[in-house]
Amino acid sequence: MNSVIEIRTNKRIEAVEITNQIDKIISDSSFSSGLCIVFSPHTTSGIMINESYDSAVIEDINSFLSKLVPHKDNYLHHEGNSDAHIKSSLIGPSKTLTFENQKIVLGTWQGIFFMEFDGPRSRKVYVKLIKG
């Protein structure tokens, strides 16, 4: 089963929690258990799993990534978004999760985030369920 989540980001660097959308895709499916693949087809974004309870954690992650890979540096890529490509490579474009009883398996405080590094933009996230 394939689904698409449409996202409109509002900032250059932004984390958008998509846990509820993914849970809905799973609960609307006829699958009780299996694998859930979450994929961003954009070279300047990523998919991350981390704490969703305290938003300061995500702010700290984005702040750290911005210090580690600054927006302006001596990059060769002429479009001015090399930092976004590097951050995307560090976070990664996809995650594979399991689900049981039509519910994604996550830790108590975990959430799934679409990570924007070159916004604002209109983006898509693809979700593939594999029956288990």
Q: Report the sheet-strand fraction.
A: 35-45%
Helix count from the secondary structure assignment: 3
H/E element order? EEHEEHHEEEE
Cα Rg: 15 Å
The largest sheet, given as strand count, sense and whether it forms a barrel, is:
5 strands, antiparallel
Relevant CATH superfamily: YjbQ-like
How many angstroms does the end-to-end distance come to? 12 Å
Helix content: 25-40%
| Shape by Cα distribution | elongated
Count of DSSP strands: 8
* CATH domain fold name: Jelly Rolls
Number of domains: 1
**Global mean pLDDT:** 97
Which stretches are poorly predicted, pLDDT < 50 over at least 5 residues?
none
Quickly give the CATH architecture: Sandwich
What is the strand arrangement across the widest sheet?
1-8-3-5-6
Structural class: alpha+beta
Concise overview:
The protein is an alpha+beta fold and 132 residues long. It is 26% helix and 38% strand.
What report would you give on this structure?
Helices cover 26% and strands 38% of the residues. It is elongated and about 50 Å long. By secondary structure, the chain is α+β, with helices and mostly antiparallel strands. The chain contains 3 helices and 8 strands, in the order E-E-H-E-E-H-H-E-E-E-E. The mean pLDDT is 97. The longest helix has 14 residues. It has a 5-stranded antiparallel beta sheet with strand order 1-8-3-5-6, with helices on one face. A 3-stranded antiparallel beta sheet has the order 2-7-4. The chain has a single domain, classed as Jelly Rolls.
